[in-house]
Amino acid sequence: MGVAFISSPAFPSVFLFSLITVCLIPELTLAAGITRHYKFDIKLQNVTRLCHTKSIIAVNGQFPGPRIVAREGDHLLIKVVNHVQKNISIHWHGIRQLQTGWADGPAYVTQCPIQTGHSYVYNFTIVGQRGTLFWHAHISWLRSTVYGPLIILPKHGVPYPFTKPYNEVPIIFGEWWNADPEAVITQALQTGGGPNVSDAYTINGLPGPLYNCSAKDTFKLKVKPRKTYLLRFINAALNDELFFSIANHTLTVVEADAVYVKPFETNTLLIAPGQTTNVLLKTKPNFPNATFFMTARPYVTGLGTFDNSTVAGILEYEFSSKTKSLSSNISIKKLPLFKPVLPPLNDTSFATNFSNKLRSLARLSSLLMSHKKLTSAFSSQ
Length: 381
Ligand SMILES: *[C@@H]1O[C@H](CO)[C@@H](O)[C@H](O)[C@H]1NC(C)=O
Ligand SMILES: *[C@@H]1O[C@H](CO)[C@@H](O)[C@H](O)[C@H]1NC(C)=O
Ligand SMILES: *[C@@H]1O[C@H](CO)[C@@H](O)[C@H](O)[C@H]1NC(C)=O
Ligand SMILES: *[C@@H]1O[C@H](CO)[C@@H](O)[C@H](O)[C@H]1NC(C)=O
Ligand SMILES: *[C@@H]1O[C@H](CO)[C@@H](O)[C@H](O)[C@H]1NC(C)=O
Ligand SMILES: *[C@@H]1O[C@H](CO)[C@@H](O)[C@H](O)[C@H]1NC(C)=O
Ligand SMILES: *[C@@H]1O[C@H](CO)[C@@H](O)[C@H](O)[C@H]1NC(C)=O
Ligand SMILES: *[C@@H]1O[C@H](CO)[C@@H](O)[C@H](O)[C@H]1NC(C)=O
Ligand SMILES: *[C@@H]1O[C@H](CO)[C@@H](O)[C@H](O)[C@H]1NC(C)=O
Ligand SMILES: *[C@@H]1O[C@H](CO)[C@@H](O)[C@H](O)[C@H]1NC(C)=O
Ligand SMILES: *[C@@H]1O[C@H](CO)[C@@H](O)[C@H](O)[C@H]1NC(C)=O
Ligand SMILES: [Cu+2]
Fold this sequence. Notes:
This protein has five helices and 19 strands. The chain has a six-stranded mixed sheet with strand order 10-9-12-17-14-15. A five-stranded mixed sheet has the order 11-19-18-13-16, covered by helices on one side. By secondary structure, it is of the alpha+beta class. The protein folds into two domains: about 35-155, Immunoglobulin-like, CATH 2.60.40.420; about 165-365, Cupredoxins -  blue copper proteins (Immunoglobulin-like, Sandwich), CATH 2.60.40. The structure holds 2-acetamido-2-deoxy-beta-D-glucopyranose (11 copies) and copper (II) ion. It is found in: Secreted, Extracellular space, Apoplast. This is laccase.
């Protein structure tokens, strides 16, 4: 839209610009958000995966950690209390931190880490962002267990620019090590070799039925037919880009990194570590007498060793009460029913295609959004 102003005659463009400035600024200042308070107690927690019980560092006894939910324009005050024998800091991944750089969180970059027995209050405002982001520890490899969703809803009264979802579900990818991840990175730094790879990928902390001793730790997404679900994807894996797909279902990408994108359909997502994306899932019109696998595994082209395993979760249609008895018979034992086909681990053409599409549609959408804002500001005069 900048181009349109430049190409119009000088006087009207100056006039239009000042008019827009006049009507946009009050909008920005009046829509002040509320202050939301959270407390994060960082403690040890026993967790068992793949038949290994470990003491991990976790927030408020939860793995993955608690959800932060706020609206665009809200202020967040998050008190982080460190009860463990490690220095720690929390990064609010993707938050722009306009004029609050010290609240960003990377240890030794924007702050000294929070030491054992100490606390720190992160104080920042969410400006001009809405969608899904996440938070995680930002020192050494503590982010392997210290992470959780940061959900930013649009301002009050502002709808999503897509079908209102029936339900919203965060889907967080992570990695699980049977060993202590701190020992893994310490060893790698000492030897100079690549760090040992993870033993599993996880969906919402659960490795799923394709790993040994893991079927009971499977993420299940229970859905009703003929509904639209908003899936809030977060890749909190340490270093791996991941392909993801749900058997027999198409996904519609509507947002990436807290920026709306012009919606596009795909059977497979590619999500880089640290990236987030919102996706609509339209469920089938009739209850299919089946469950569906959703799987993720990495996209890799390098030569080093990597975790090439596959995490699976299950998409399950909820039965009506009439068929309840049948529902109890559909168990993990009867799997697999339908499995998605993911691209080969080294499918660079898919990866390039997907990233280019995402980037160009995000740019297009932000142009359209700002154009819409300007025209509505103008027509309201
Ligand atoms: C974890 O398990 C160990 C060994 O069973 C136990 O001593 C410890 O208290 C547990 N820690 C927590 C936080 O529950
Ligand atoms: C913890 O942080 C303090 C302050 O930055 C530093 O002096 C200390 O060496 C750190 N401890 C460890 C184990 O890194
Ligand atoms: C948070 O920051 C705002 C603005 O910078 C300030 O007015 C407020 O007092 C701070 N709150 C706390 C609890 O530090
Ligand atoms: C890394 O893997 C090697 C080979 O399997 C093993 O000997 C070593 O103990 C592992 N390191 C850690 C920290 O688990
Ligand atoms: C699972 O266990 C079986 C039998 O113990 C073994 O052959 C197989 O390699 C294991 N699979 C994985 C993924 O660890
Ligand atoms: C799922 O897809 C497979 C392979 O394309 C097809 O054979 C099967 O009928 C589909 N099932 C459902 C319930 O859509
Ligand atoms: C649903 O599956 C059950 C168990 O596999 C089968 O007995 C039943 O006939 C199926 N119903 C339909 C409508 O396909
Ligand atoms: C995964 O990696 C292991 C160990 O490097 C290798 O033996 C196996 O063939 C690989 N599997 C796939 C599907 O690439
Ligand atoms: C469920 O399974 C049990 C035993 O496995 C069987 O007795 C029962 O008839 C099944 N119910 C349905 C509705 O298929
Ligand atoms: C991808 O890996 C396969 C083996 O799994 C290999 O045959 C193929 O050449 C690789 N493609 C690229 C572009 O590296
Ligand atoms: C790349 O995207 C184009 C346009 O969306 C599509 O026609 C083509 O099949 C895609 N190629 C791959 C390898 O996915
Ligand atoms: Cu981060």
